[in-house]
């Protein structure tokens, strides 16, 4: 998507010469800017007193037809407000850009959580900017289309050598923004986006030597899907279901489940599957029609793989960080909470993952991260698994997909880490605060009820203070809210409930839901 076909743009009294989006020249400039990031990562990042500027652009640069089906999608830009915790470093400046303004009370809420820094001190180093545009276009596109806003961002960056851009996910739009601002991106070059697609994920799993579901990748047509479904059934006559996934789907909303009817494994199998497709296929996102699904699948490509069955199965994930020097850190493991009829929709997460398998899970995650590092991946990303309990009580992990971006488990963990200054030990599967205490959390992005519609951010703060739900920095336990901007219109918000045990974390969650239901009844 070209933002401007001209290479020259005038803003106020300044004239800028930019390479065309997607051109060879833009790529060369981008790579040159990215090379500077290694020194910044090694010298500025570890020094808490080093001056720096962080531009946070929480653009969900994803398929807009599917994203528009997500309730309150524009407010998902608030999930990266957890990065305001970086203002605890006293010379750090943050520029945070959103599609629509974030209420002052929400910003004040996050600044109140800052350990060791007053809200006033942090406020002086924070600039909140808005496009005042709630349309479904990606936020990054909105920014690029506003030259005066771009100029204001430039004026707020005193030194491009100590500044960087962090985003939810990175596409050609974010690359163009980095080039036009002259600052590096902390994330994977979008030219390598295929590595994190559903098809690319399967190839990386294969090359990493980890288990992953039987299936086929790089499919584009309905005929490809039918043939893959037939081949899977011939390989495993007892197979009940298969999953069809768009390459660039997210949170399960690009998936569909095919349930096999009673079929003969003969030469008519493909024809019978094709005829049954409309009746036996169920889209995970209820608002996505069959027509839209296949249109998107044809444009994106995708995969077909077996639906993993098991009497006891879990959906854990591993979160990793790859540095510019290709160092790998396993920063967390989670058990994901999945909803929907077939368990395909991300609802939330429990941290850390179950101690029965978190260590072996992290080892598989590291193998995949090593493969991605060799292929040029950078920054924070997550790998999703399905883990099935075996008859001998061991667990078998199947890698499902790679998300070369931030995701639903990113902001809860960052909040915990910023507030407790702790670290996750992948060798033991435990998280310890700086004081040596274990901590756990229960988090959800999808606390939703029509009863909550009409609650303002100020109402939520009043309720949480009155009922003592607020996070207690002394005890390092309690409740943190996010997605608060979606509450009044959509009755939707997110919670991160921290406790000294898994049971206490869940108890905070249950208490919060009970109180919200009571207050809104």
Which characteristics define this entry?
521 residues, five-stranded antiparallel beta sheet, TATA-Binding Protein, nine-stranded antiparallel beta sheet
How does this structure look, described?
- The protein is α+β, with helices and mostly antiparallel strands and 521 residues long.
- Among the domains are: 8-186, no CATH class; 214-306; 439-521, TATA-Binding Protein (2-Layer Sandwich), CATH 3.30.310.
- Helices cover 33% and strands 25% of the residues.
- The protein has helices at 24-35, 37-43, 64-67, 104-112, 119-123, 139-144, 147-155, 172-181, 198-208, 222-235, 269-280, 290-300, 358-374, 410-420, 457-466, 487-490, 502-519; strands spanning 8-11, 14-17, 52-57, 92-98, 126-130, 163-167, 215-219, 241-246, 255-259, 281-283, 302-306, 313-314, 316-322, 328-339, 345-351, 379-389, 395-403, 423-425, 430-432, 440-448, 478-482, 492-499.
- The strands form five sheets. Strands 12, 13, 14, 15, 16, 17, 20, 21 and 22 form a nine-stranded antiparallel sheet that branches.
- Helix 9 (198-208) packs across helix 13.
- It is globular and about 70 Å long.
State the low-pLDDT regions, or none. 1-6
Residues in β-strands, percent = 25-35%
Helix content, binned percent: 25-40%
What is the mean predicted local confidence, pLDDT? Answer: 92
Distance between the termini: 47 Å
Radius of gyration: 23 Å
Helical segment count: 17
The global form is: globular
Strands, total number: 22
Describe the main β-sheet briefly: 9 strands, antiparallel
Structural class: alpha+beta
Give the topology:
Layout (H helix, E strand, L loop, with lengths): L7 E4 L2 E4 L6 H12 L1 H7 L8 E6 L6 H4 L24 E7 L5 H9 L6 H5 L2 E5 L8 H6 L2 H9 L7 E5 L4 H10 L16 H11 L6 E5 L2 H14 L5 E6 L8 E5 L9 H12 E3 L6 H11 L1 E5 L6 E2 L1 E7 L5 E12 L5 E7 L6 H17 L4 E11 L5 E9 L6 H11 L2 E3 L4 E3 L7 E9 L8 H10 L11 E5 L4 H4 L1 E8 L2 H18 L2
Parallel strand pairs: 3-4, 3-6, 4-5
Antiparallel strand pairs: 1-2, 7-11, 8-9, 8-11, 9-10, 12-16, 13-14, 13-16, 14-15, 15-20, 16-17, 18-19, 20-22, 21-22
């Amino acid at each position: 998507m070209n933002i401007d076909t001209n290479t020259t743009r005038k803003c106020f009294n300044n004239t800028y010469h930019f390479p065309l989006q997607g051109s060879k020249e833009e790529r060369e400039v981008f790579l040159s800017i990215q090379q500077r990031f290694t020194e910044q990562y090694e010298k500025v990042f570890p020094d808490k007193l080093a001056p720096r500027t962080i531009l946070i652009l929480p653009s969900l640069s994803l398929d807009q037809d599917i994203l528009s089906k997500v309730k309150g999608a524009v407010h998902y830009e608030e999930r990266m407000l957890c990065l305001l915790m970086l203002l605890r470093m006293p010379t750090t400046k943050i520029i945070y850009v959103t599609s629509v303004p974030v209420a002052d009370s929400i910003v004040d809420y996050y600044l109140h959580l800052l350990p060791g820094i007053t809200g006033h001190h942090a406020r002086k180093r924070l600039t909140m900017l808005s496009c005042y545009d709630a349309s479904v276009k990606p936020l990054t596109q909105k920014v690029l289309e506003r030259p005066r806003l771009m100029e204001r961002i430039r004026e707020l960056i005193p030194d491009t050598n100590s500044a960087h851009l962090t985003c939810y996910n990175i596409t050609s739009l974010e690359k163009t923004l980095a080039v036009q601002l002259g600052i590096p991106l902390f994330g994977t070059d979008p030219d390598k986006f295929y590595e994190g697609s559903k098809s690319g994920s399967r190839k990386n799993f294969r090359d990493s030597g980890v288990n992953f579901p039987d299936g086929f990748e790089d499919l584009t047509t309905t005929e490809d899907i039918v043939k893959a479904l037939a081949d899977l059934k011939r390989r495993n006559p007892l197979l009940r279901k298969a999953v069809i996934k768009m390459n660039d789907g997210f949170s399960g909303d690009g998936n569909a489940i095919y349930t096999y009817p009673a079929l003969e494994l003969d030469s008519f199998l493909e024809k019978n599957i094709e005829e049954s497709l409309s009746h036996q296929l169920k889209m995970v996102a209820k608002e996505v029609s069959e027509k839209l699904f296949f249109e998107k699948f044809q444009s994106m490509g995708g995969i077909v793989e077996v639906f993993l069955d098991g009497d006891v199965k879990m959906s854990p994930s591993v979160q990793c960080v790859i540095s510019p020097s290709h160092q790998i850190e396993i920063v967390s493991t989670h058990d994901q909470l999945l909803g929907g009829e077939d368990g395909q929709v991300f609802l939330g997460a429990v941290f850390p993952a179950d101690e029965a398998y978190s260590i072996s899970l992290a080892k598989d995650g590291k193998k995949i991260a090593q493969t991605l590092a060799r292929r040029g991946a950078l920054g924070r990303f997550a790998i999703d698994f399905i883990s099935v309990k075996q008859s001998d009580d061991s667990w078998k992990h199947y890698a499902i997909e790679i998300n070369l971006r931030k995701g639903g488990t990113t902001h809860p963990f960052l909040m915990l880490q910023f507030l407790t200054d702790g670290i996750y030990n992948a060798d033991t599967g435990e998280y310890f605060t700086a004081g040596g205490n274990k901590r756990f959390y229960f988090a959800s992005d999808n606390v939703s009820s029509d009863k909550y519609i009409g609650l303002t951010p100020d109402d939520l703060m009043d309720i949480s203070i009155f009922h003592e739900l607020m996070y207690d920095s002394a005890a390092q336990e309690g409740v943190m809210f996010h997605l608060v901007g979606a509450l009044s219109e959509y009755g939707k918000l997110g919670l991160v409930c921290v406790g000294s045990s898994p049971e206490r974390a869940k108890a905070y969650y249950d208490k919060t839901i009970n109180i919200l239901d009571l207050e809104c009844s």
